[in-house]
Design brief:
The chain is an all-alpha fold. It has helices spanning 3-13, 19-35, 44-54, 72-76, 80-86, 94-111, 116-129, 136-154, 168-196, 202-218, 227-239, 245-261. Helix 9 (168-196) runs antiparallel to helix 10. This is Cullin-associated NEDD8-dissociated protein 1. InterPro entries: ARM-like, ARM-type_fold, CAND1/CAND2. Keywords: Repeat, Ubl conjugation pathway.
């Protein structure tokens, strides 16, 4: 009942130069979305706009001025040492703002499946662009949000979803369109993830496998042409000495899903 009074106040506080306050603002938005998804409808555009703005909020780091360039991942790794001299990571709380904004977007995705198509035009490209996120915890949340989008595309059983029986037909049409849109993004997704499968970060690699597993379930057969790119990452995760048993299980679980959701001939060149 009080959202109309509260929302403008929370929006105003996101403009204050205080990372902790901004983090709390997005946590409040997330709570509103999860508890009152229907009542938040009039505020979707504004809150989404704020989330998209602050999910890239990283004032102390330079991503080579190429937010939109997927190739930036090739050169990104070399920048770490330089920027570490300029500021202390301990003082940098901007990652908490990015994380809370991304969690807020995930709340929209998981509670409003009826808006799936609009999410593909607004939220999906923004999440893909953040696969290069430098902070491990935030990157894990980016992968989690994208995995939620994939589950909703598949027809997730979100008990919050506002779809009623009467709109099932429209929902099924939307789902087909969403899958078609997703297919166009698969090369971008694989290009970003296959590099991350050889990263030191176990959390990132687990996030990759979770996301790829959802992708194989959502669009069976869609990874066929990308199997040569993905296999070295799977092999690395199974043979790397620093890999935990949990990580190996995640790698094998994904490989199992890959095998059952793709034609056998796709694996013949790799049988050895």
């Amino acid at each position: 009942d009080h959202l109309e009074k509260l929302i403008p106040m929370v929006v105003k506080f996101t403009g204050v130069e205080d990372d902790e306050l901004r983090e709390y603002c997005f946590q409040a938005f997330e709570a509103f979305i999860r508890r009152c998804p229907k009542e938040m409808s009039p505020h979707i555009a504004m809150v989404t706009k704020l989330c998209l703005k602050f999910m890239t909020f990283d004032p102390n780091y330079n991503y080579d001025d190429s937010e939109e360039d997927e190739d930036s991942m090739d050169i990104e790794d070399g920048d770490d040492e330089e920027s570490d001299d300029e500021y202390s990571d301990d003082d940098d709380m901007s990652w908490k703002v990015r994380r809370s904004a991304i969690k807020c977007l995930e709340a929209w995705i998981s509670t409003r499946r009826d808006l799936l198509l609009s999410f593909y035009s607004s939220i999906c490209p923004a999440l893909l662009a953040r696969f290069k996120e430098r902070e491990e915890n935030v990157r894990a949340d980016v992968f989690a949000a994208f995995s939620t989008l994939l589950r909703q595309t598949r027809g997730g059983s979100s008990h919050h979803s506002l779809i009623t029986a009467g709109s099932e037909l429209g929902a099924s049409r939307d789902q087909e369109t969403a899958v078609a849109l997703l297919k166009t993004q698969i090369p971008v997704i694989v290009k970003a993830l296959h590099k991350q499968l050889k990263e030191k970060s176990l959390k990132s690699r687990q996030g990759c496998f979770c996301l790829l597993t959802e992708l194989a379930h959502t669009v069976p057969g869609s990874l066929e042409e990308h199997i040569p790119a993905l296999l070295p990452g799977i092999v690395f995760c199974l043979t790397d000495k620093s890999t935990s048993s949990t990580m190996r299980i995640d790698a094998l679980s994904f490989f199992h899903v890959l095998l059952i959701s793709h034609p056998p001939q796709a694996f013949q060149p790799h049988m050895q």
